[in-house]
Amino acid sequence: MKSKRFLIALLTVVLLLSTYSLAFGQGNGSSQGQGNKEGHKKQFKLGVEVLLEDQFEVIDGKKVGLITNPTGVDRELNSIVDLLHDDERVDLVSLYGPEHGVRGDAQAGEWVPYYIDDVTGLPVYSLYGETRKPTPDMLENVEVLLFDIQDVGTRFYTYIYTMAYAMEAAEENDIEFVVLDRPNPLGGLKVEGPVLDESYSSFVGLYPIPLRHGMTVGELALYFNEEFDINADLTVVEMNRWNRTFTYDDLPLQWVAPSPNMPTTDTAFVYPGAALIEGTNVSEGRGTTKPFEFIGAPFVNSTELSQALNEIGLDGVTFRAASFTPTFSKHAGTLSHGVQIHVTDAESLNSVEMGLHLVKTIHDLYPEDFSFRAEDSAGISFFDRLIGNGEVRQQLSDGVAVEDIMADWDSGLQEFKETRDNYLLY
Q1: Of 25, 253, 294, 339, whose CA is between 20 and 30 Å from 33?
Q2: Mean pLDDT in the chain?
Q3: Shared-domain flag, residues 233 and 376
Q4: Do 80 and 191 share a domain, yes or no?
Q5: Residue-wise pLDDT tens digits, 227-249
Q6: Is 150 helix (H, G, I), strand (E, B) or coil?
């Protein structure tokens, strides 16, 4: 009897120790457990910091071109442009800006011309103008091309395709390509939405990945490079102590708006679903202080819509009746009514599901006034580009339940997850 009790006690101790180890292990962030967040935070470094402090050999003695924007900062909010320009070890020769520009002073869709940076005197080439892919002339004298931009974890955010096109240009011009990794602000676990049908490929969805991909820019670079035969001479400078369970708010970082309409981390969390409203005649809140959190139109009844959405009982979010007047974009200068999306629990929020319910509920409540954006000459609406296929728009029009719509893309999502596992760094 004593020996039996001893064995039970011993097994209990072993089990407790194993549980403790899994919960608080100090690995390199690859565990999908909670991890010791405080320990990881203290040792956390961004890719740019790892480059300059620990892996400088990656750019040592090479002429450097830099693709960045205002999010390219270290933990002290120092711009990578200034960090590299002021570092006597670095030969920085040119800058390249994505949509919104290197200094972030261009609105969505605005073309940014070539100019000279006032601070550094360096040439700045636009990758959102006449070309979205660096030309050989733009890359003259460049031996290594760095990419350091904060992504928001959503397929239709264009910076990841600026990266992909630049990788292609680097390969074609025998230039090394280096991604300085940054966190996925939504965390690295949850993957949502349909995988893009390649027939609907565009600059808001270049490759067949889901709406919420759950990958860092470095992991995406590896994925694009291998799966889509870019074959660039690619190096990813990994972050130190990033864990897939971490959202941006878990990290010792200040949020720098990646674009004019991405002001907060809450915006980033609702964006994968709320941005689907861009494919309709309803305002997604551009021209307000809460883009993608304010949703509405002049024909909407705020109380009716908020009540209908809250009755669905979606996790992690609540909807408040709200009215607003956009200063630009859809319904500019016109009082619009709708909802403000309030994130109550980012971890449990399924933003794509939320976005589909938003579109469906407004469609069903106001069928005479609601419309999807017009089709182009190929019969494709901007909504189709955003969602990544032509089926969902038809299903919503036909009254198909959101749960059934989501079930249709589950097999493609599972296949993506399996392939994705080959490229995860953390």
Answers
A1: 253
A2: 91
A3: no
A4: yes
A5: 999 999 999 999 999 999 999 99
A6: coil
